[in-house]
Amino acid sequence: MIDCKKMDGFDQLPDSLILLIFNSVSDIKSLIRCRAVSKRFNSIVPQTESLSLTVDRVISPESESDSLLVTFLKIFFKSLNDLLSTSIKPHNPTRTLVQNSPAQILTKFDRVRNLRIELPAGDLTLDKGVSVKWRAEFGRSLKSCVIIGFKSASTTASENPGEGAEIDIVGGLKTRVMWTISALIVASAKHFMLEDVVRQHEEMESLVLIDREGEGTVVMDKEGMRECRLGGAHVSEGQWDRSRTMVPSVKMRMRHEPKLMLKAGVWVEGATLVVVRPSEGKDDVDDGELALGAFGDGIYREAVQELLKSRSYMLEMNSF
């Protein structure tokens, strides 16, 4: 006769099924806590393949003079201060992992295949009413970046929507280029921060870094991560602190409409779409396919669809 008091439901489940449950949980903080439940859980949790790391606390920069990297590091590492309670030796003895960095946290997991990291906020400094969204794909260096932005969204349009269009096209070029440069700098800094993670986990197939506000996304696929491991990330010359991956010489195809009407009578002003690619290399995917696949559904995709009908302008930029 079975003693029900001594039965544990989880003891009756195979390890493979428990691992499926852990993959569904995915949240790293929850999984690390699960390790304390039992010896069995402690041995299974490190085998979890799909993981999600959420950074949920932000601290204000101590000085306005702080660089983008310093502010980024403060947000990224300080917010993880209490997550780990044990000391972990780095896999690569020649490179010390920063205390409580994502790379160090992930040394607790042996078979990472899919990783999603969420930051608490975007990094671009924008004027009031301006909305910018970007998505950058990396390998060893930048593969592509799609940026869309507009000044405002409303259900009413100002009088004479075509008035001043030519002036805006010329006078607003500087602003649109600054949106592009700022997005590329932020993307390259975030890509650099992921280098240790990519090198540690050779079985990883997808890596996505986003922010909670939905402003920017950095993605790497299996082939991109392989390139990164083989060649190492490009670093800007003269950057003694190795703060970001170097952005290569790029060509930027820009489309712009001073005023654009979307569905349900929504108007956006200064709508701009920029598709950025390295100057060298073949364009395997056309602008339309790349841009339409960048932002999912909603107002941004609608804006992309309309802007793809507009005339495009080609700009080039040296590496930085």
Protein architecture, described:
The protein is α/β, with parallel strands linked by helices and 320 residues long. The protein is built from 11 helices and 10 strands. The protein has helices at residues 15-25, 28-34, 39-44, 68-78, 102-105, 165-171, 173-193, 195-200, 222-231, 287-292, 299-307, and strands spanning 50-54, 114-119, 131-138, 142-150, 152-154, 206-211, 216-221, 250-261, 267-278, 312-317. Strands 1, 2, 3, 4, 5, 6, 7, 8, 9 and 10 form a 10-stranded mixed β-sheet that branches. A hairpin with a 3-residue loop joins strand 3 (131-138) and strand 4. It is elongated and about 65 Å long. Mean pLDDT is 79; it is low at 58-94, 159-171 and 236-241.
Order of helices and strands: HHHEHHEEEEHHHEEHEEHHE
- Note the overall shape: elongated
**How large is the count of helical segments?**
11
How many distinct beta strands? 10
Find the structural class using helix and strand composition.
Answer: alpha/beta
